[in-house]
Automatic annotation (TrEMBL):
The keyword Zinc does not apply. It catalyses: an (R)-2-hydroxy-long-chain-fatty acyl-CoA = a long-chain fatty aldehyde + formyl-CoA; a 2-hydroxy-3-methyl fatty acyl-CoA = a 2-methyl-branched fatty aldehyde + formyl-CoA. It is an enzyme of class 4 (lyase). It comes from the Eukaryota. InterPro entries: DHS-like_NAD/FAD-binding_dom, HACL1-like, THDP-binding, Thiamin_PyroP_enz_TPP-bd_dom, TPP_enzyme_TPP-bd. GO terms for cellular component: peroxisome. The keyword Transmembrane does not apply. GO terms for molecular function: 2-hydroxyacyl-CoA lyase activity; metal ion binding; thiamine pyrophosphate binding. Its cofactor is thiamine diphosphate. Keywords: Lyase, Magnesium, Metal-binding, Thiamine pyrophosphate. It holds the Pfam family TPP_enzyme_N. The gene is HACL1. This is 2-hydroxyacyl-CoA lyase. Its EC number is 4.1.2.63.
Length: 337
């Protein structure tokens, strides 16, 4: 009799991967993003058997909730520690009880409106420049002209992300994804892939515009293979200034190498000039474009938006020494060290 009971229990045993997959299913998880390996492979197979979609990534990411980070950037008047969903729900519940908004005629609002107007004028002036190579503002002006109103905008990089936030507009909530206040690098393509999976299932035809600096693209550029493997509705824009913050043009690069080898003379922030990142996309079956003028940018973006059969990457060459407009707030650039 004991042996019989043991046999029955043995037949009921399931793997740990199956238990995890079942737990995820009961929590209404629809997608899993992971790096293939033990134990992810077993969990992914078990999840797929239960109807959960698995997206195999090439680059691993991590997220922490850490109390020690509160106030690490700017000292806040109030700190909130907790799960963002729970905290946001609590805040909304309290606001429903006691509706409140900042007085629209306050000095703070007046100062903010004046600054917004000044920033808009400065950005328009930079965007109107006709010189080649293009600058950041010229690029984003022409991109903004064609952006679908319902698209997701993902941005990553230094100047690319900072300037993109001020020029590329969103019209719907939860349709902008970027690295946030910490400027974490390597998250852009992962964000784009996650957004694309949701868009592909729930809003066919919706596009994801992923705007990357050339340095930022290097952190997880091989996710292009993931994008092509699942044929995701993503258009990658790589804003290429040949470097991190700033780089050099090909003539300056060649002149430097006449004196010593690259490891001895090339500044650390410089990348190889005129790198053809669009060929990473074409290597995996997507469409790639190398553009140097506003006209080429407009044409390639128009073609990418019209072609819904495969992802695209537009490699946009800009002035290597291009920068953003002067920043007024010291906390944007100071070191905490």
């Amino acid at each position: 009799m004991p042996d019989s009971n043991f046999a029955e229990r043995s037949e009921e045993q399931v793997s740990g991967a199956t238990v995890i997959a079942q737990a995820l299913k009961t929590q209404d998880v629809e997608y899993i993003f992971g790096i293939v390996g033990i134990p992810v492979t077993e969990i992914a197979i078990a999840a797929q058997q239960l109807g959960i979609k698995y997206i195999g990534m090439r680059n691993e990411q991590a997220v922490d909730i850490c109390a020690e980070e509160l106030g690490n950037n700017v000292k806040p008047a109030v700190t909130l520690l907790g799960d963002i969903n729970a905290v946001t729900k609590q805040l909304l519940e309290e606001l429903d009880k006691t509706p409140w908004q900042y007085p629209p005629e306050s000095k703070w609002w007046k100062t903010l409106r004046e600054k917004m107007k000044s920033n808009e004028a400065a950005s328009k002036e930079l965007a109107s420049k006709k010189s080649l190579p293009m600058n950041y503002y010229t690029v984003f002006y022409h991109v903004q002209e064609q952006l679908p109103r319902d698209c997701f905008v993902v941005s990553e990089g230094a100047n690319t992300m900072d300037i993109g936030r001020t020029v590329l507009q969103n019209y719907l909530p939860r349709h902008r994804l970027d690295a946030g206040t910490f400027g974490t690098m390597g998250v852009g393509l992962g964000f784009a892939i996650a957004a694309a999976m949701v868009a592909k299932d729930r809003s066919p035809g919706q596009r994801i515009i992923c705007v990357e600096g050339d340095s930022a693209f290097g952190f997880s550029g091989m996710e292009v293979e993931t994008i092509c493997r699942y044929n995701l509705p993503i258009i990658l824009l790589v804003v290429n200034n040949n470097g991190i913050y700033q780089g050099f043009d090909s003539d300056t690069w060649k002149e430097m190498l006449k004196f010593q080898d690259a490891a001895s003379v090339v500044p650390p922030m410089c990348l190889l000039p005129n790198s053809h990142y669009e060929q990473v996309m074409t290597a995996f079956g997507g469409k790639g474009y190398f553009v140097q003028t506003p006209e080429e940018l407009q044409r390639s973006l128009r073609q990418s938006l019209a072609d819904t059969t495969k992802p695209s990457l537009i490699n946009i060459m800009i002035e290597p020494q291009a920068t953003r407009k002067t920043q007024d707030f010291h906390w944007l650039t100071r070191s905490n060290m």
